[in-house]
Amino acid sequence: MTDDRSSSDLRTVISPKWLGQVAHLRSSFDTAAPFPHVVLDDFLVESQAQAMLEEFPAIAVMPQSRDYVFGDKRELSSLEQAGPACVRYYEAMTSQDFAAFLGDLTGLPLFVDPDFHGGGFHQGGDGSFLDMHVDFNIHPMHGNWQRMLNILLYLCPDWNPEYGGDLQIKSRIEEEPTSIALGFNRAVIMLTADNTYHGFRKMHPPAGVTRKSIATYAYQMVSNSDVVAHTTRWVPEDASVTKRILARHYDTVVRIKQRVFASRTARNR
User: Fold this and answer.
1) Alpha helices in the chain (DSSP H)
2) Number of C-beta neighbours around residue 259 at 10 A
């Protein structure tokens, strides 16, 4: 749940122009297609964004994500260990003031996961991709936390559209996705639900150029019996028959793996 600290310094991290326009943003969020979202350029105070770019970890030190055949990118959740600018960002994101901003934006009582499970630094280079999917809906460690929002901050200066890597979003499997271009200090705040498909196609930036983003996830409290939990649901485009079968049964495969791992852990105690 939200940090007990008050974030009186929120305006030194997030651009005051966005904090002061939440009523307008609420209308834009609610009416956006193909599902509720907003795109906010210059999301952070410029000096904050520049400092976070300088602190962004090298791709070589970031572990491979656990997307298996459905993605090729690197992830590192330990945002608060990267440097003072990232600590300020972490504190802002997990503050009560930011939770209130998200509440005003969506009309929901939300809070940010302080452990950034599955979030934090994301990075990919030549050949990186992430197949279309909808996100897991219940936090793996907290059965009464329902995931409701993704807050995606892109830190890609001088990104050439020819490299690819645009965020692709759609609300129906069969429809053509809407593209959201990458940029520097551009944030996308988007609903996450059972029809909020998103991903990015294989990209080809030159050597030394990477797709950098920071992912933050917001939740609401629910009763354990209110929502049927599911893992990430993959719907890859132009995939082989084998990959499509794996995607269709991915939730079952993950549940079996979790039971086997739990059983082995119990035997080894």
Assistant:
1) 16-19, 22-31, 46-55, 84-93, 96-106, 241-248, 250-267
2) 10
In 3D, which of 198, 203, 57 has the Cα closest to residue 125? 203
Q: For residue range 103-155, what is the model confidence (pLDDT) as tens digits?
A: 999 999 999 999 999 999 999 999 999 999 999 999 999 999 999 999 999 99
Instruction: Name the residue ranges covered by the structural domains of the chain.
Output: 10-236, 239-269
Which candidate, 151, 196, 149, 152, places its Cα nearest to that of 34? 196
What whole-number distance in Å separates Cα of residue 207 and Cα of residue 79? Answer: 25
pTM attached to this predicted model: 0.91
Structure tokens at 58: 């090298």
- What is the rounded CA–CA span in Å between residue 198 and residue 131? 8
Class of the CATH-defined domain 10-236: mainly beta
- Residue 96 CA, distance from chain mean position: 20
Q: Are 131 and 209 in contact (CB under 8 A)?
A: no
Q: Is 122 left (phi over 0), alpha (psi -120 to 50) or beta?
A: beta
